[in-house]
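A sample copied in:

***
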Amino acid sequence: MPRSPSPEPIPFSYATYELPSELGYTAADGGREVSIRLVGSHPLWGHHLWNTARVTTTYLLTHAASLVRDKRILELGAGGALPSVAVALAGASCVVATDYADAALMENIGVNFDANVPAPARARALAVGHTWGQDVGPLLAATPEGVHDALIKTLDATLSLAKGAGPTADGAPPAAPCALVFLTHHRPRLADADMAFFPRLAASGAWGYERVVEEYTGPMFENDPGDERVRGTVHGFRCWRL
């Protein structure tokens, strides 16, 4: 008997994020809820609103005075682009949300800007297809070390004209340009390889870094193997040019 065809994936799904009430930001409709449309499925996992995106967004909004307002913001691997939407609402002078140059992903980011960001801020928010480093083929086939090299090259290219500052005396984020790298260990057995990015970044001699967030949010996928605490903890780092 022939096998039944697999069901077609849903074209889109939606996830929400509530802007913290104490910070005073509102979306295009005047409310605090940001609705993020996600592509129905995608081989690069752009169809999920990741815990890292939520934690990154809250961190950026909490420190908007020094990290966002009147700043140019570039997001790499944006997916649904929640952090980019949020910083557009929080007064960034220019927001560029990037992901793999896939038409569905790029169009979807534009839809999320349209739905949540009012004019004139909407005119300053762009969706641009981009590959880390150089060609995407070697990147996808690379070892973790190769991925690190490509990401470092992208960071160097985007921040090479501005030197950042180290931590301030009171521990507050400085106003100088920096890169935020937020991640979770979805495969605990590779946690050491994930974290090897930061010493490698420092070894370049051009970057400093510090941990700014460690927050347990619960795992994205409950049935995945490995320690749930490891899989469900978001780690956030701030990196700056020396």
Remarks:
- Confidence is low (pLDDT under 50) at residues 134-148, 158-170.
- Residues 11-130 form a domain with the Rossmann fold fold (CATH 3.40.50.150).
- The chain has nine helices and eight strands.
